[in-house]
Queue: 4 jobs
Job 1
Amino acid sequence: MDIKATSSKIAKKVQAGIVACLLPVFFLYILLDKPDYKIMNAMAGFVVPAAHVVGDGITWPVRVIKKINDNMLVRRGIRSENRELRRKLDELTLKQTSCVPLAAENQRLEQTLDIVRSQPKRAVLSRIVYENSSFSSNTFTLDKGENAGIKINNAVLSKNGFLLGTVTDVGPNWATVRGIRDTGASTPVRVSGSDVLGFLRGRGQAQPVFELFSDQEFSPTKGIILISVSAGGTLPDGIPIGKIANAGNGKSAPVALGAKTMSEAIVLIQK
């Protein structure tokens, strides 16, 4: 049995060797003698698929490398595009940041313009000879009057340039002033640098309040500057009054007046 099995294996190897040797001869025969194409057609059904399989096996690494290379090119393009987008975003951020101080400077200049706008051409310096500051009232008397050109409704400022009140009564050499702290005083004011209007209501010894805003969406915040507004009256526009002390209750806010208590006052004489 062992001898027969061994003989069978040797026979198969010999047959394979013979086939391997005859195949080149067969192909040379086909190429040189140009036999009938029936043989070639018959061989095509076997040779062509086998060639495709062999070709796919041989070119597989090449195709894989090509696909990897294509993916790398796409990723490189995405990275380059991301870098460009970041650069543009940085430029826009830098421009926005640079606009912040310009906006602040513009607001400061606008506030300065508000303060000096429409000021009268002439002013009279007068001494305060009597002051009545109580729980509810705030009035004082000046030592100059009609002879100096002072009239009723003239605005009166402190020496540091803030509104003190308006003249309510006048004689030849005296004038009575109602201060903006007086409970009977309701001074039309405006938020500097905006169109928001309102009224400053006096509360005697307590801080006056800014209320009755023209813009319902306005939210008072600490530090906002208030200035006078004529609103059709005799009070000049643009006289500084003070700053909002804190946000208050949203409908009204306390105001820290800028006027300093002094022994003298400035009366603005209208044309």
Job 2
Amino acid sequence: MKYSLLDLAPVTEEGTAATALHNAADIAQHAEKWGYSRFWMAEHHNMEGIASAATAVALGYVASKTEHIRVGSAGIMLPNHAPFVVAEQFGTLDALYPGRVDLGLGRAPGTDGATLRALRRTPNDAENFPRDVQELLGYLAEAQPADVIKAVPGYGQKIPVWLLGSSTFGAQLAAHLGLPYAFASHFAPDYLHHALKAYRDNFKPSQYLDKPYAAAAMNVFAADSETEARYMMSSMQQQFIALRRGMPGKLKAPVEDISRVGSPQEIAGANHALTYTAVGTKDTVSRHMNQFIDDTGIDELILTCHGYDHDARLRSFEIASEVLNER
């Protein structure tokens, strides 16, 4: 099976957006050596701890620093954009790096109300998501001589389009359109199995796919000792606690005792969001990862490691690749 990597380009307390983006390219360079097939980045706005807001630009930088690994958005939040502009952006990426670009689309705005207004969008724009997806697919299709509007670059380039989701809505739409589907189980575990079942049960073969192709994400914090792995994971736990408090910021340094950071209820909430997480040594993460693959029957596993130390993240992805290459 294929496996890929999602990097949110985390900006640490001691770091900068520039460092985060350089780190992303470094991880991608290692990932293609370790056998990862795809490198995903995601659109988030007004978040000091994530440097991938201009996702197409960030992916272009990563693609320029790598040789063959595919680069993709997981995702572009389509309600924030005109479908025509997205077609041009990813058409440009594909023109520069042919055969290496994937366009994953999400329905959530990925930000707060005030930022939506700064983007000149409204919450109601998400209601147009199915129509916008079909419009975008039209721009990426083969243009006809009579077409008044053509995405240049973009049209006829056959860029793979994915739908992403954390509920059954995206699964149903992906099934209806015959598109590949990815579930964000690394932070939204509750509807994973419902969404995968809805996608497979309702899938309609299309010009894009003959049969369903499903991916799902999980966190991996792998290290040479259980203590190191738990220590690395504590930064992600702190991030969720801060989000629930309405105080998002840069990624915090790990701590040895997470109970000193949050209340039992806050830690429980963070741990629930991180239900699908493999944390520990190679043997431990191997059990978790293989169980996740077997339970879901996915065609592609997406791994993410929102850790503080760059070298520790590299080691985590390396250990995970060893597990998957041995599978």
Job 3
Amino acid sequence: MEQTHDLTTRVQEAAQKLQGDLDQVRRELAELNVGIPQNSAEVDRLAQRELTISSRQREMDMNLESYPRGDIRQFYVSLHEVQMRLYMMRTQLEQQQNRQKALQDRQRDLQTMLSLVTDLGSQGLSATTAAVGSGDEEATEQEVISRIIQAQEEERQRISQQIHDGPTQTMSNLVLQAEVCERFIDKDPDEAKAELAGLKTTIHHTLQEMRRFIFDVRPMILDDLGLVPTLRRYLQDFGERNNIQTNFVLQGSESRLPKHLEISLFRVIQEALTNVAKHAHAPHARVALEIEERKITVVVEDDGVGFNLVEAEQADRRGSRRMGIANMRQRVEKLLKGRLALESTPGKGTRVIATIPLPEGGTSAE
């Protein structure tokens, strides 16, 4: 009897959770249903403006000698800005439409699950205890898979946004500068040389940005040299990029760890440091790595603004504040069978502590 009562309570809680998720999906859909038509209208407006400017460009190209150099440069800057704005709005609109479709699918799934759970509660649970038990296990497994897929998609979206905001825009600038050089090379060689010097500087800067981006996505020295040298390099670059003074402390051997463990530890530290850069407003950040015979302990701490842990985890699960707490916990506790602890108080900084067990002979070359 008591077991049936507990099961009834769990079914009711599951129904409440599903209803809450369904309400959240409906709210997001309502926002998208408003935002998508607005962005679509903006895309149409920018496309028309690009068409008008492109027509003027053809006219200018035919009478280039009648326009001052400053006007030519300003015209192409304006054209580039419209083209980039159009590209960004089209990308945003496409992401919104994809998100809308995913939410609509999610809404249908939640409605089906809520209907099943409601029917289960209304029909009684005495004959379905075993089935519900196995169903709970299946639901837990499904949740893990869902979180992994969601984390992968969020990572792809982050990479896409980084490419769009960095290399893509810089490459567009290179094309613009090359076009200006092409138009000046016969009419004003000195001006063409000056533009070429600027083009060379921009290419060098782009190359550095691409190398940094590749390192963030998948540092090759992680495979070649291991976790510790990679962390030293990453922390130095992170500090310079975000104007944060960093410190790395290693206790124990610098021996290689199993490859999957090195990758997972790097991702957890990377996620924690990303939070420091985005949310902490901290002047200092510290990473401590302690490698013992049977376990590894990682500590990432800062002296920033801190936050309320309960509110942050709830917001992270809802997606209203993307701090990756659930992703870090999933990686440490589900994949590595370790423990993840967070310590934070508003105004007193944050500490992330991950403890991961090592198998026999855990430190190895491969």
Job 4
Amino acid sequence: MKKIIIATALLVGLTPLVKGQEKTSVGIMAFTYASGAAKSNDVNSIQETVTNAFVKTKRFNIVDRTKMDALKQEKNLQKSEDFIDGSTIQQGVSLGASFLISGHVISAQAERMEAKDDKGNVTTTYKAKLSIQLKVIDVATGQIVTSETIEPKTGNSMLGAIGIGSSTPEAAISKAIKGIEEKIDDFVSKNFPATFPIVEIQEKDSKGGATKLMIAGGTAFGLKKGDKLKVVEISEIEVNGKKLQRKKEIGELKISKVEDENFSICTCSMGGVDINSKFEAKAKLLVITKD
């Protein structure tokens, strides 16, 4: 069966368009933490949560954990502040990673709370404070392209606190880690949106606008029915003697059917005329997953 080229992930607004036909290779570095700020088993749980956020998208090749552990052993990362040097980047290259994900646990601690009822009975519960910093390092340049501090959503002024009412410190920390899963998913989606080419325009309306089209992306990249996508036109503009890449959004799509691992059918909800005219003019168009 004829293979269709599938574009790999790109960092929108942060790195140039990634040109390739394979899934993006990502190395999850051993997470660091300050002494007394967290326990090693909790840090490992947080790292696994981040790793799972990449794995479940089906859009990444994750560098083997045992190979990444070599970086931890050499730099003793578990007991030091996060850092990136030339040697670490070079090892990332040798492991085949395009990007390294660095994580530092600022705080993962549980605090004891006591409350008395009308009869003087004391109830002991625990609340957790969790805060982590995630960084994306481009192995090709050695540069940190994005950095974000992630904390659970709270409804009060106690930054990063969650898990109130848990019966044990461990339960409070577990609840807090569960509370950041959605934010970690958003971090992955925002910084590594998947991109796919348009294969063909299948249906048009009376004005010549695309109403249904096929893209080269399916279950292999975690796409599913109902997903919303955007269509962008890629062009180059010279500014002060320097060529800059411009990504102009021209339309929106919604997946109506995922045919297999390679193809999906989409309906056009916005910009059908532009999409069709530029597709016929062989402009460089890409379909990108939305945040």
